[in-house]
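Hi, here's the filled form for the chain we discussed.

Project: internal
Contact: R.S.
Residues: 104
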Amino acid sequence: MIDVTEAAKKAIEFIKEFYAVQGHNLCAVALEEIKLDEKEMYWLVTVGFQAFGSYKEVSTGRGNLFAMNQASLARLPRSLKMIKVNATTGEIKPEVLDRELSPI
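And the returned structure, exactly as it came back:
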């Protein structure tokens, strides 16, 4: 059985790859919640992030910076996705489940 840390890493990596293939860039990727469904033997991992499409790169003498400042990032909506990770094998179930943000 995979442990909670490995399940979280697999889910976060899956989200990053899933959105990269679609041309989205993610920021503020974080583990929001994780729990074990002992009946079905899946880790239910909720990952939060902000996604933006294309970005403008700015070339500097020290490398590249993205032309998106903190104020711009703060306006991006935060998304939550629940990923099911097989607790025995570590495989990702191929569905990505949306979760709504509840008001604070």
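Let me know if anything looks off before we file it.
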